[in-house]
Design brief:
The complex is a heterodimer. Chain A is an alpha+beta fold. Chain A contains 6 helices and 5 strands, in the order αααββαββαβα. Chain A has helices spanning 3-12, 22-29, 34-46, 76-86, 118-131, 162-165, and strands spanning 50-57, 66-72, 92-98, 109-115, 139-149. Chain B folds into 2 domains: 5-48, no CATH class; 67-135, 2-Layer Sandwich (Alpha-Beta Plaits). Chain B has helices at residues 5-15, 24-32, 36-48, 80-88, 116-128, and strands at 52-59, 67-73, 93-99, 105-111, 133-135, 137-143. Classes of the chains: A alpha+beta, B alpha+beta.
């Protein structure tokens, strides 16, 4: 990314202005044209830097207060197949493979479940274990006790002045 | 939090993203058959009430060339507040959650440069005198954050 793109991104991260011509507002703050801002965003999209441009929810405010991270220790040969399979459950919101840290953390497959009620989430975890023969696989269930911070990334905020950001 | 049917429709629609165009909200309003002004007022209302954190880009940190990893700490109960304050003070720390486990604090580290991950890790370790363990992602099988409303 060049400096212009970094500045645009720094501003967009704060949230798109909620107005009819939001990119024009961003452009004005940076003394750029609306076209330059739109072209930069389109370029990031084409290159896969931008997953999407949309709303970021505070899911707890919408009643999704029972969240669990379920981790498994899966053999190398099985992990990809199982990861893809667990990702197809509608209540699984994320499914990742991460480096295990044996012996104190043997787990390499991570699933997140976001739900409204703990009992329901517990039932969904039971389903994952039963339907995929995972009961005897070493695993751990980490329910969320509280959210301590929720903030999106702050890339390149040093590239623009505080007045521009405010 | 009470949201009405129209809010619900708006959130559901916007979870899947908007087009990159001069007047992005106009097409969404047309699609939802509401007035653009009302759409913008409602969006602002949802932000003000804390239902939406922001409306913006969801980046692929790895494609951007930045560092990204999950991190965990085991924080003694009587130091939890103090350590939370230190960890949260770093702009590189995104989400941070307390979880029901021996490893009870889990957060995401995001940096512009992958080498900065280790630097932030060491800074937090130094200030808290606790270990920060890193769990980098190896493969993503599924990612969906479109909640059923």
């Amino acid at each position: 990314m060049d400096l212009m793109e970094k500045k645009i991104l720094a501003l967009l991260q704060q949230g798109l202005p909620l107005s009819s011509k939001p990119y024009e507002e961003i452009a004005q703050k940076l003394s750029l044209s609306e076209g330059e801002v739109l072209r930069a965003i389109q370029k990031w999209k084409d290159r896969g830097l931008l997953r999407r441009f949309g709303v970021v929810l505070h899911h707890d405010r919408l009643g999704y207060r029972s969240n669990a991270m379920v981790v498994f220790e899966v053999e190398e040969e099985r992990v990809s197949e199982l990861g893809r399979r667990l990702g197809t459950y509608p209540f699984v919101t994320l499914c990742y493979r991460r480096l295990s840290r044996k012996p104190w953390w043997p787990y390499n497959l991570y699933c997140m479940i976001h739900g409204k009620e703990r009992l329901v989430v517990e039932g969904q975890i039971e389903r994952l274990l039963d339907e995929n023969g995972l009961r005897d696989l070493p695993h751990a269930i980490l329910f969320t006790k509280q959210k301590l911070k929720q903030h999106g990334p702050r890339y390149f905020y040093r590239e623009v002045s505080e007045e521009t950001l405010s | 939090m009470v949201i009405d049917e129209v809010d619900r429709k708006i959130i559901s629609r916007l979870q899947s993203g908007i087009a990159v165009e001069e007047e992005p909200f106009r097409s969404v309003a047309l699609e939802l058959e509401i007035d653009e002004g009302e759409l913008l007022r409602r969006l602002q209302g949802l932000v003000d009430r804390g239902v939406l954190s922001r409306f913006g880009p969801l980046l692929n940190a790895q494609a951007l060339g930045g560092g990204v990893t999950l991190a965990a700490m085991s924080v003694p109960e009587d130091r939890f507040e103090e350590v939370t304050e230190i960890v949260n003070s770093y702009p590189e720390v995104g989400h941070n959650y307390e979880r029901d486990h021996h490893w009870n604090m889990w957060f995401v580290l995001l940096t512009e440069d992958p080498e900065q991950i280790g630097r932030v890790q060491r800074l937090i370790e130094k200030r808290t005198a606790l270990e920060v363990r890193l769990f980098p992602k190896e493969k993503e099988y599924y990612l969906n954050f479109q909640l059923q409303l």
